[in-house]
Amino acid sequence: MQLASRRYDVADVMAAQEFYHGRGWTDGLPVVPPTEVAVEACLEWAMLAPDYLVGIEPVRARALTAEKLAVNAVMAGCLPMHFPVVVAAFTAMLREPFLLHGATASTGGCAVLLIVNGPIAAEIGMDPTFNALASSDRASTVIGRALRLCLINLLDVRPGDIDRSSLGHPGKISYCLAEDEAGSEWLPLADERGMPSGASCVTVMAAGAPRQLMNEWTTVPEEILDTYAAEMRANMRHYSIWPGNYAIVVPPQLRAHFNAAGWSKADIRACIFEKARIKRAEWAECGKGAVVRDRGDREYAALTAPEDLLVVAAGGPAGGFGAVIPPWLGGKSRAVTVAIGACVDCEVP
Hints:
Low-confidence stretches: 342-349
Strand order of the largest sheet: 4-3-5-12
Number of helices: 11
Order of helices and strands: HHEEHHHEHHEHEEHEHHEEEEE
Radius of gyration: 21 Å
């Protein structure tokens, strides 16, 4: 296998850290030196040639090859078995509806949320239960971080450069979780989004920070969803009024109440679609009265259709907690789902 990347000689691992930090090639955390052996192992696992073209970033026509993704995946701490998820994530991010340049260059500070479905999640050790939206396990953390390092080093998405975020949020370090399919009676997210049943898939979404909520004082599905909808309305009041893909994370304690009532994800989406709405006049209550003008009675929905809501089963078993993950900015960027798979039309030399 012939790699095209330039080689550098450094004295030791610590020297490698300073070498990479000094060139702006990291996210501020230590990196794993991307040796030729480690990079080749990722490519071999995914059965991809080094020059395999994963895609082209359309705004600046930057070509993203498997080798360059593998280099950054190794730096992030990925093992070879993690690499196919990274490739699939970038395949999805490069699809036109995701609007990669806009999402990564915006002052709004969104991050790339990655949701993994299918058997690969268990195979690589992703844990969709405790701490699901944080450092739940090695695979989730390093895969999410790999996306950020690829953005930094291949597309110059550095703070103050392409990345113009005013604040950002911690998901810009890593924002990756698996859906708890084994612990849920619901249809997996990827299946709902048209992927073959049982396939390993990724869904990417340009997302704001998660907004945690709690309601353990009711078992009634509509009342639980009142809490979720209230958080979505708060985002519409305080951040953006425009509809787009929202994601909600539903842990086991709340899922049990939905299951007992016979509610599916489709039922949840339909209910949220009706509840998550505000009047423009509400902006006057949070300092935005200047933009209300004569349109105070106009109603805005968080979703253009029930299908815009991504319902994800994940989280630890205790407590009536949940989370709403808002979109970056309405419908400018759309969530994209693709299957994880090996290259079937190329050979590894």
